């Protein structure tokens, strides 16, 4: 039976009280370890982070890019792009330096890989030009 | 619709950024044009000057490029306004350009005028400019003993500054181990130690606890630089070793020169924040003649109301909010504790006991300010 002098703390199990004390010790330790400089640096980083996040989330172009990147087929393209970057980084340093001159140009132009690459660039260029014309027409 | 914001301080920057966010679709569709004219390409965090005066911050930490704080859709020019032609809805700038507007926001701020009190500019330290705050810190480092007198001119920006200064001085000299050799004497122009009654009631026992002497009804009449004595209009005087003044303030000269308001303060509707007699002219921050504190906090809350109302006028043809006089002031009660005062037209402040977390909140706000002026907080 509860008496009038009993407080809520008296009714609390010892283990709970111990946890409360430990929590208070944790808070006190954290508080003692903090300094004005730490608070300033943390708040500065948080402030800049928030500003950056705000700018990124309100950047129409970036949001559109994220939407496109979210599509499964674009993700395959990204994987292919990553693979291509890796393969190129291996191939370029191993290839002999270009000898120059028209003969060299012709050899490169005859290479099916070069032709594939040029076709990819021209398709990309065609769609980019089309999209830019469309944006301009809409007043972007 | 052409919106022109004159002034790139706290109030003007928040108004412009908030409008750019709220009216982004209208700006993109070229139905609204938002222009800001400022006297400087730099933006200063003015409350930081008190920290500079105590060596807790360096001046470079107080500045950002104004353009970097503004939304990209704001047409920003460093070209201060020299002439206001409110009857013709246009202003003329220093470079001679004319800017016409449909809605004008005046946020020109205030300036210190220590020269209005004989001897104050030469004899007193202040912390209201970068140079004077650095000079004050150097003087504080030099002083070894004697009386440090604090005097307060009226009106002045940031009503809490005088008590924060005194608490800071107490902690500064204590940390240097010379508090017992320094007498801090505080002088205040009215019959209690602070203009806000609740702050006065709270601060008086704190002053007593810290051993700070004070004299009320002390309106500075002159500073006798040669004899190091400050005199009051009431006929009293205090000899000093170092004098620190909260100088009197006025609105900007351009407001007085254009006869827009006595003392440079523009007569403003306390709820609508429009200039009396001009419904398309809004006033924010120190520039108003409102009976609220001249602080960044008041400018911030006013700016929120003004930008929301301008945006709603454009969108639905009517304003939607009134300013309730809200002010939120941090009060640094030394170098490691703080409290705050929040009040409005209706409710006086209810000050809580100072604490270290509150001081850290203020430290954090010093950084978060840049997020705040961008219109995010």
Question: Can you summarize this structure?
Answer:
With 140 residues, chain A is mainly alpha-helical. Helix content of chain A is 80%, strand content 0%. Chain B is 32% helix and 25% strand.
Give me the oligomer status: heterodimer
Specify the number of helices of chain A: 6
Cα(first) to Cα(last) distance of chain A is 76 Å
Head-to-tail CA distance between termini of chain B: 27 Å
- The CATH class name of the largest domain in chain B reads Alpha Beta
Mean pLDDT of chain A: 88
Share in β-strands of chain B: 25-35%
Count of helical segments of chain B? Answer: 11
Give an overview of the whole structure:
The complex is a heterodimer of chains A (140) and B (377). Chain A has 140 residues and is mainly α. Among the domains of chain A are: 14-56, no CATH class; 99-140. Chain A has six helices and no strands. The model of chain A has no long low-confidence stretch (mean pLDDT 88). With 377 residues, chain B is of the alpha/beta class. In chain B, strand 6 (81-85) and strand 7 form a beta hairpin. The longest helix of chain B has 21 residues, at 296-316. Chain B is globular and about 65 Å long. The mean pLDDT of chain B is 96. The chains are: A mainly alpha (140), B alpha/beta (377).
Task: Explain the layout of strands and helices.
The complex is a heterodimer of chains A (140) and B (377).
Chain A: H1 14-33, H2 36-57, H3 60-70, H4 72-94, H5 101-110, H6 112-137
Chain B: E1 2-6, H1 10-22, H2 24-28, E2 33-38, E3 42-44, H3 48-53, E4 63-65, H4 66-69, E5 75-78, E6 81-85, E7 90-93, E8 98-100, E9 103-106, E10 110-112, H5 120-123, H6 130-142, E11 146-152, H7 161-176, E12 182-187, H8 197-210, E13 213-215, E14 220-224, E15 229-232, E16 237-239, E17 242-246, E18 249-251, H9 253-257, E19 274-275, E20 278-283, H10 296-316, E21 327-332, E22 338-343, H11 356-373
Parallel strand pairs in B: 1-2, 1-9, 2-5, 9-20, 11-12, 11-17, 12-13
Antiparallel strand pairs in B: 3-4, 6-7, 7-8, 10-18, 14-15, 15-16, 19-20, 21-22
């Amino acid at each position: 039976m509860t008496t009038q002098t009993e407080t809520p703390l008296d009714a609390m199990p010892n283990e709970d009280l111990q946890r409360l004390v430990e929590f208070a010790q944790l808070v006190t330790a954290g508080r003692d370890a903090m300094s004005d400089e730490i608070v300033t640096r943390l708040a500065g980083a948080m402030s800049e982070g928030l500003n950056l996040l705000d700018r990124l989330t309100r950047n129409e172009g970036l949001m559109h890019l994220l939407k496109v990147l979210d599509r499964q087929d674009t993700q395959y393209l990204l994987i292919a792009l990553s693979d291509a970057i890796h393969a190129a980084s291996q191939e370029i340093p191993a290839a002999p330096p270009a000898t120059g001159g028209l003969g060299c140009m012709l050899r490169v132009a005859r290479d099916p890989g070069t032709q594939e690459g040029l076709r990819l660039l021209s398709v990309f260029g065609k769609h980019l030009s089309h999209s830019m014309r469309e944006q301009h027409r809409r007043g972007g | 619709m052409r919106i022109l914001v004159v002034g790139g301080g706290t109030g003007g920057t928040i108004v412009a950024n908030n409008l750019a966010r709220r009216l982004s679709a209208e700006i993109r569709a070229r139905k609204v044009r938002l222009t800001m004219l400022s006297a400087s390409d730099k933006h200063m965090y003015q409350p930081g000057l008190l920290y500079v005066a105590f060596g807790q911050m360096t001046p470079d930490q107080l500045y950002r490029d104004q353009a970097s704080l503004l939304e990209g859709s704001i047409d920003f020019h460093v070209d201060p306004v020299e002439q206001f032609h409110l009857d013709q809805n246009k202003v003329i700038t220093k470079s001679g350009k004319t800017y016409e507007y449909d809605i004008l926001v005046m946020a020109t701020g205030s300036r210190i005028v220590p020269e209005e009190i004989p001897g104050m500019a030469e004899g007193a330290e202040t912390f209201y400019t970068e140079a004077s705050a650095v000079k004050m810190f150097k003087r504080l480092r030099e002083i070894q003993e004697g009386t440090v007198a604090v005097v307060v001119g009226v009106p002045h920006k940031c009503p809490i500054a005088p008590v924060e200064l005194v608490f800071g001085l107490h902690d500064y000299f204590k940390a240097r181990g010379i508090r017992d050799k320094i007498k801090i004497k505080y002088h205040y122009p009215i019959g209690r130690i602070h203009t806000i009654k609740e702050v006065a009631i709270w601060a008086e026992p704190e002053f007593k606890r810290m051993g700070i002497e004070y004299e009320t009804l002390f309106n500075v009449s002159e500073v006798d630089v040669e004899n190091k004595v400050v005199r009051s209009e009431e006929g009293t005087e205090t000899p000093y070793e170092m004098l620190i003044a909260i100088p009197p303030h006025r609105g900007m000269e351009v407001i007085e020169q254009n006869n827009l308001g006595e003392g440079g303060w523009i007569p403003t509707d306390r709820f609508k924040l429009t200039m009396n007699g001009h419904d398309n002219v809004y006033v924010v921050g120190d520039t108003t003649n409102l009976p609220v504190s001249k602080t960044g906090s008041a400018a911030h809350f006013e700016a929120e109301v003004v930008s929301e109302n301008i945006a709603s006028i454009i969108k639905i043809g009517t304003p939607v909010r009134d300013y309730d006089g809200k002010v939120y002031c941090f009060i640094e009660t030394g170098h490691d504790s703080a409290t705050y005062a929040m009040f409005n037209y209706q409710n006086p402040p209810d000050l809580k006991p100072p604490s270290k977390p509150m001081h850290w909140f203020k430290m954090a706000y010093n950084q978060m300010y840049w997020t705040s002026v961008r219109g995010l907080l």
